[in-house]
Amino acid sequence: MKPIEEQLRETIGLDAASVGPSLIQRTVRHRMRSLGLKRPEDYLRFLEQSRAEWHELVESVVVAETWFFRDPEPIAAFARLARERWLPAHTATPLRLLSVPCSSGEEPFSLVMALLDAGVPADRFQVEALDISTRALARAVRGVYRRNSFRGQDLAFRTRYFRPITDGFVLDPAVRRCVRFYQGNLLSDDLQIDQAGYDFIFCRNLLIYFDPLMQRKALNKLERLLAPDGLLFVGPVERPLAIKYGFVTASLPMSVACRKPGHGAGRQRLPGPPPQPGESESVFPSSARPARGELLGASRKAAPLSGDNLERARRLADAGCLEQAAEICEAHLRQSRGSAQAYYLLGLVREATGAPGAMDCYRKALYLEPNHYESLLQMALLLQKNGDTARARTFKTRAQRIQTKM
Q1: Is residue 121 in some structural domain?
Q2: CA nearest to 198, candidates 277, 111, 297
Q3: 123, 141, 244, 310: which sits with the fewest CB atoms below 10 Å from its CB?
Q4: Is residue 287 part of a domain?
Q5: How far apart are CA 154 and CA 9, in angstroms?
Q6: Exposed, middle or buried, 389 (CB in 10 Å: 0-12/13-18/19+)?
Q7: Alpha helices for 162-291 (secondary structure H)
Q8: Which domain range does residue 337 map to?
Q9: Last residue of a domain, one of 259, 283, 302
Q10: Is residue 53 assigned to a domain?
Q11: What is the distance between the alpha carbons of residues 320 and 278, in angstroms, rounded to a whole number?
């Protein structure tokens, strides 16, 4: 099976450990039975000769788990930024947005609905969406979705933009017309999407399926696709990877957004208040930046044991006040050592500052909550960075199992 796994890695970037080698093995055995082949080497030869079979294999191993407004906070932050800051600064050109991978369309359509709800006219933005799966794209173009695509408590958007039919819900054609779908591989050199700079790119929860070499290649491609002052939205645990390969964090509350260093060359920079002295770029996704007085007072008073306490620590970290954030987490843990989230946040702060003990914090979080998804992924990233590839794959596999149940 190793040659087949390696071919998948080299072609579509898939790290077998990220989905579990057993999934690929089961898929290959199923394909072999359907073709009447007995040996993996026979299937590999057939795979090299048949483009159709290669597509069948890819369709069977790609992860297509998605739903509408899966991560509402970054989508809402994007829509606010587009309406309040981007559009007023770019009156002559439409906003250009790329969603990759777009799967069966739930993400790009969510972004369109968010823009429309924010009062952005449809002629002021262009949305393009890319995925490697032709089957997923066919579902996206059709625009018919079953109940599994609608999760969470707030489904008011379904009433506004969908019509119930016998086999699910059909999306309003006006929304569907806002997205152009493309079949392609982000890692391919002959990618067919428009190569001009996109103002916003959503590429969330893709890099976690790649090994370090393919992560670098994907981020290099995304950097070329992004406009000089554009924003790249990644998954929460993918931001350290983006930073590692040249991006910098963007101070956009409630999102995990990155930008190119020294952005603004050749285009007007997005308007907004400059950072105050002593503040730095955002480190973690969080809610709004706290007031200056709150920053100064946070480290002086004892932190009560509460969820609000951890939210304050997160806000301080987002504002770049990492020492104060660490103090609050440590005070929280002195009162109660049973908080996996406190250990996780303290690990992030220590990792961001280069202080020792980040991995120990993640281990303690996992001792308290063995299925703490974010800690599993951070452990995988740290172990991979330290060269312990085998253990990194173990943590990535555990995290992947949890993600499929979310």
Answers
A1: yes
A2: 111
A3: 123
A4: no
A5: 38
A6: middle
A7: 173-176, 212-225, 239-244
A8: 292-405
A9: 259
A10: yes
A11: 8
390 and 254 in a common domain? no
Distance CA 337, CA 342 (A): 9
Cα 26 to Cα 247: distance, rounded to the nearest angstrom: 38
- What single-letter amino acid sits at 40? P
Say whether both 329 and 225 belong to one domain.
no
Residues 123 and 217 in one domain: yes
Query: 181 and 96: one domain?
Result: yes
Q: Judge contact between 130 and 168, C-beta under 8 A.
A: no
pLDDT in tens, 355-384: 788 888 998 889 888 888 888 888 887 787
Q: What is the pLDDT of residues 330-362, one digit of tens each?
A: 888 888 777 888 888 888 888 776 678 888 899
Q: Which element (helix H / strand E) includes 96?
A: strand 95-99
Q: Which of 61, 80, 98 is the last residue in one of the domains?
A: 61
Element holding 164 (H helix, E strand):
strand 162-165
Task: Give how many domains the chain has, as a whole number.
Answer: 3
Buried b (16+ CB within 10 A) or exposed e, 226-265: bbebbbbbbbbbbbbbbbebebebbbbbbbbbbbbeebee
Q: Are 348 and 316 in contact (CB under 8 A)?
A: no
Q: Looking at the structure, do residues 84 and 20 belong to the same domain, yes or no?
A: no
The larger pLDDT score, comparing residue 387 to residue 233, is at 233
* ∠ Cα 156 157 159 (to 5°): 70
Residues 225 and 334 in one domain: no
Pairing of strands 257-259, 95-99: unpaired
Q: pTM of the prediction?
A: 0.68
How do beta strands 257-259 and 248-249 pair? antiparallel
DSSP string, 53-71: HHHHHHHHHS-----TTSS
Q: For the domain that residue 377 is a member of, what is the CATH number?
A: 1.25.40.10
Amino acid at 46: F
Determine the 3-state secondary structure of 321 from DSSP: coil
- Rounded to 5°, the CA angle 134-231-137 comes to 10
Same domain, 237 and 101: yes
CATH number at residue 117: 3.40.50.150
Query: How big is the CA angle at 124 (ends 121 and 125), to the nearest 5 degrees?
Result: 110
Residue 279 belongs to a domain: no
Claim to verify: residue 56 and residue 76 sit in the same structural domain: no
- What span, in angstroms and rounded, lies between the C-alpha atoms of 82 and 397? 36
18-47 burial code (b ≥16 CB/10 A, e <16): bbbeebbeebbeebbeeeebeebeebbeeb
